[in-house]
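Work through this protein:
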Amino acid sequence: MAIIGSIIKGAIEIKGALTSEPNHIEEQQKVLEMLLKTASNTDFGITYDFNKILESKNIQKTYAETVPYFDYHQLKKQWWHKVIDGEENITWPGSPDYFALSSGTTGKKSKRIPVTNSMIESIRNAGIKQVEALSNFDLPAEFFEKEIMMLGSSTDLQEKDGHLEGEISGISASNIPFWFEGYYKPGRDIAKIDNWDKRVERIAEKAKDWDIGALSGIPSWMELMLQKVIEYHNAETIHDIWPNLQVYTSGGVAFAPYEKSFNNLLKHPITVIDTYLASEGFIAYQERPETDAMKLITDNGVYFEFVPFQPEYINQDGSLKQDAPSITLAEVEIDQDYVLLISTVSGAWRYIIGDTIEFTDVAKAEIRITGRTKFFLNVVGSQLSVNKMNSALRQIEEKFDIEIPEFTLAATRINDEFHHHWYLGTETSVENKVLADTLDEVLKKANKNYKVARNKALKGIKVTTIPSSIFSEWSGAQKKKGGQVKMERVMSEDKFVEWENFVSENHSI
């Protein structure tokens, strides 16, 4: 019997039983008050008179009316460039010890996002909450004695001007508590390898020495790593190497597109748990097995606001209009897409994180990520979100019994007429035109705006199928391989030209 595992599981279950459901609306009010009080004497707090906001009868409303929205580039241009240059007390007291590098899904130049000690503590607290939630998933005691493979970016952080830089997964892994190190794989030495391919090669070499019970990482890169480990050991599934693998903690992107191809790497099903860790903070985690929705962490140094994701509030480049209305957690509704705004203990204020979400349960503050604001395809009024694209492709998978874990598309012009050109990462003998016609019909039935656009300026769909590996090779060519990297789902016309040139050079269509 797994005595240590039973003790750990018992302790988690007791803690869970003693922890009551918080009042999320009240917790958010407290978080905002804490943020404003803590930063009231910073340059940002003085400029926007946080002390006056704190005197208001409705702090949340006054805060929204006083402080504008900021995306990364706006916040950097106006404020964070001073933080990056080493100035103190700009948007948060003192200066951060870390900067999270994030090139996201657009552009090659990395963003530098401040990560304060308060944020490190916030991320650690969120991780503990997630571990405590495992008591809801009916896992055997033996599971709590197994090792955890955390496939993030390199923990070999770079020192620059008195601070350390790296991706948030690398920063988090470099700050794991000492008691967790015995469970953590691939271990500090391998995790420090900067080259993703070499790191995965070392993981494959050492794989049979480990008893992995859980995986954690972004689906596309996790799947690629598992394939490499399976190939290295000439195995049929990952369970031939890690027989006790029972849990996969996904994060950052929807798991659904990868579910079919991911499951083909397994001998038997495992528990998939979603999390939402961004460079700007730990946003949400899946608390219970009866849903794949995630619970917003409302009492942990992050204040949330929501802007209805409607075309009139979004600029053509995907940015948010300043006159777009925002609402609080007390005002949200289910089944409505929202642009997510955060204010944090790292000195981000009304920050447009770039994701869109929907609520599945308001009382429990549970959400799903539905897409990216910049991936909203609204050329000629088609109003396609990533969520709608993913749903359509799941129907295509089922109809033709194929796997489509990766895709990208753009609105292109052919003889001055608009078409949507989709590239699908899949292995299939189904003709491209058949896939295009079927996808077109699925989208028409599911999205009335798309159907209207197809009867007007949007003249059709073109589909090109390519191996899924091309997508990871593209990310590598963009210097974005591994870690928190996410594939662009919707590209601008200029970016799409680069993509098509890359595909033609690396794959004969």
Summary: The first strand starts at residue 98 and ends at 102. Residues 1-11 have pLDDT under 50 and may be disordered.
